[in-house]
Protein 1
Amino acid sequence: MNSYNFCESCGMLIKSGRYCEFCAPNGQLLPLSKIIERMVKAVVKKQGISEDVALQRVIAHLRKMPAWKDFIEKLEKETT
Ligand SMILES: [Zn+2]
């Protein structure tokens, strides 16, 4: 039996629930912009890459996540 879950928003390993403490600090999922902002900062810090490159990587990651997949697809349809 698997006792771990993955955050549906960022993919982080969590013990229970649907979202990690960063994506849903009060049990309420933060807006996508906040999630992106936090993840970009983390990636820049960790990998030492520019914010533009980090943003592209974060979006590429988030668009696979159950919490954002449809949302991002819709956004991209509207902007193209
Ligand atoms: Zn998360």
Protein 2
Amino acid sequence: MNLQLNRQTFGDPADKGKVLSREEAASLLKEWVPNERLRLHMEQVGLLMRKWAEEKEQLGPEDQWRWEMAGLLHDADWDQWPEEHCRRIIAELEARHIDPEIIRAIASHGPAHFGVEPETKMDKMLYAFDELSGLVHAYSLMRPGGYDGMELKGVTKRLKEKTFAAGVNREDITDACSRAGITQQELIEFILRHQGK
Ligand SMILES: [Fe+2]
Ligand SMILES: [Fe+2]
């Protein structure tokens, strides 16, 4: 499946700062993503993005929502139109005059697939959270206590087991952490602090 986007610029600079309301984003997800597991994945990545913007980047509520929106919508077209991932959500957000930074972050969440390099901090963190958040969630589903008592050690062990959540690309995780300038350990600890709470 060729998902290359074949372009490097997204949205209109004049739309800077324009966002969907929380209600609009929720109704788009409801309409586009019948698969509840995928919706949960996007909500989890959205939450991590918001928390990172708040805690690590010390951004205010408006920017926090821009970061969250990128996470919340990054796979919105994957459920129904996988062969058009993420072309379709980009087109939708461009038509709705959404902030180009949000669209660009979505376009660069899989550089190997889409051919767009993560450049901004928002781009890089979305790329970094995407796979690792999924692995941590898969781990929670096989633990009797779910997220309760989950530790760095256990996640690191699962990460090394190539057969566990085999769809999660370990190389992408390593690549994403080095691009974002954070350690894998730091990223896992951040996810454990926020996800599943
Ligand atoms: Fe994706
Ligand atoms: Fe994803």
Protein 3
Amino acid sequence: MPATVEPTKNGTGVVDGAGAYPGPVGTGRVLARGLLRRCPVCGSGSLFTRWFVLAERCPGCRLRFQRIEGHWLGALGLNTIVSFTALFVVVVASLVLDHPDYHSGRLAVVAVVTAVVVPLVFYPSSKTMWTAIDVLMRPLEPGEADPEAPRRQRR
Ligand SMILES: [Zn+2]
């Protein structure tokens, strides 16, 4: 059975029937929300004011994205893993495609462009995806996410 994220109003981790928020959400959906730069808990978008600036809290459920001190080290690690994997794939693909006539200049340019562009492009997703992984590993504490926040503001 896949792991689920079940933030509840009572914070016990037990879904309290009708109105539970957001209800059991599968691991795949939580990770997909993170990858797509959405809140892993409620799925709200527009979390970034600029490409590199993440809001402190989710506008939908009020989840504080930096859940603990040092939270973003995980995002840094995730971005590093993705960037080095992309660099590895690009270098190996270039070597395979150029075989047997290697073009070291072209390979260096492709590698440097990959090493610079991928971490910058993946940066926002690394933050929301790391928060998704963190939520999956360390379930929400009571009161960490407030499903009623947007509705209260409208009243
Ligand atoms: Zn949210």
Protein 4
Amino acid sequence: MTEQVVIRKPDWAIDPAKMQSMADEDIDKKRKKLDEIAKTPLEKVSLQTLKDFEEVLGADDPLGYFLFIKHVSTNKEQRDAADEIEKDVRKFFNEIWGRKDLYDVIVQLEPEMESLEPEERTLLDKTIKEFRHRGAALDDDKRKEFLEIANNITVLQSDFGRVLNEITTTIPFTIEELEGVPPPVYENLEKEGNRYLCPLDYPVYFPVVNYAKNPETRKKMMIVSYQKGGKENSERLSDALALRERQSKLLGHSNFAEYVISRKMAKTPQRVIDFMNDLKERLTPLSEKENLRMRELKARELNTTLEDTKIELWDIFYYHEMLKKGKYAVDQNEVKEYFPASQVVEGVLEVYQTVLNLEFVEAEKPNIWHEDVREFKVIDKTNGQTLGVFYLDLYPRDGKFKHYAVWGLMDRRVKDGKAYLPMCAMVSNYEKPTKDKPSLLTHDDVETFFHEFGHLMHIICNRANYARFGLDGVLPDFIETPSMMFENWAWKEEVLSKLSGHYKDPKQKLPSELLKRMIDAKLLNVGTLQLRQVAYSLIDMFYHTERVDDTSEVFRRLFGEITGYEMLDEVRMDAGFGHFMNTGYTAGYYSYLWSKAYAEDVFTKFEENGFMNSKIGTEYRQKILAPGGSLDPDKMVKSFLGREMNNDAFMKSLGLDGK
Ligand SMILES: [Zn+2]
């Protein structure tokens, strides 16, 4: 029997003046309902009480998509309104989870936990834990303090992110200073006299850092980018760290990392630190060898002696590209010509449809916030059921979020026999098409596309009955697994021939010769690059386990100690690093490497049975994606693989021996 579904329609053109009052009304309405629930006589509390509570929280429209508007709207007034609303909404949720009266009602069900159906049992368990985790079970004084702190953190987070989204800094460079950078990257940029105004957006930033021959150009670009957010954001981070520390103490934990990680897969900060230190030890010898190879290259280029030659931070990507081009004959700019965005998008959609056994139907009259955006409906081919809606917003513009990310705008939930379908959006910043050239993607971009699309599918394929089990309900150290696993498809010839086609002659696919060389180059500088990930993870752990006075100094020092690359005193990367402020990733940057270990292992099943195998893909969808946050990730993985997870495939993916 097909399920009755409801597809919600956000009003993207909403009058900014109305947004605040709508949000206020929605919050009032929810608060009233919660007050009623809180008045339930304790002896009358039932499973329905829990369901009612969940429904108040889960029915997120219009608040869900309002929060997204902040990151993509072309209308500054809408973004400003959304920014204010975001703070209100988050404060409201802090308030809910800090309410002792609600907690006292819900906790009545705890003795009945074992008698509930699995999904309801998990819902109850997670709800009670969330209350406890967010202060509702504390004594009055502590509870009030906890709530106040949570609200202060919310404001800091919101302001921190806003500053980064709104950055319009440009760096002027002459054509001589840009030597080595492919002209299409800058020739359409605005000019000031004879200088091109280079923004920090990825489509300009990466090529400048990768190809500018003049080290001063690369250095300037990198330094300005690493100063993003400025002193104010460093102070916001520092304040947030102190507040989080206090929160964890109120709950009886010794530090913030212990407090958050206790609910994740990793369970303790020590396990994370051990995992990272082990990786650090294994990757360091690789990184040292790679450093020597880059030094040799630099010495040859500049005609200096090896002893006098040092690889600076802004040299890494430049020599990385040079090595790729020299040793492996892989020129990213040549590769790019085979990946026009339109071809890649169609190709990736096709691959996902085949593997997961889905059909994507593009909306003829899309309901969108900008003309570049595309809207799709997703249908499950096994039964014709509509699963959800996603949007693609791929190119940069002013005021838009600067990185790659996926937002869940509305979670799936079932109410009165009807499924309210999930809605989500992928936001990226690929090079813009010009008059005579389509948008061309690097192979990294293609891989990122597979990654982000994996997040989209995680949201869309959810079959849980409660919004709590949407993407936000997935354990943060598992959340990257499904998307990282799909990066593997970007390295398969069969896949790349589908989604490549030279922009001048689409029939010309990426030559398999070239792909083979790309695969050979895949592990180039893996030690150097992965050690950076280890460094970020360990900096994050340090921030959340130790006392930190100067976040910028700690960042520079630890980064230098771990990677062997010095950061200049004038940079403050901490101020531009959204992960340290983003709830899901605080004391959680490690999730990337942690999730990758799972992703590589899960992929072995596709490797063995065929990576375009819809049968395996459907099983994957049902066992790993459909439960969302309603099942324990270790159990899902075990059920899919038919065995316990291990790290062998992960180590191999890093060019290291297993065990
Ligand atoms: Zn991701």
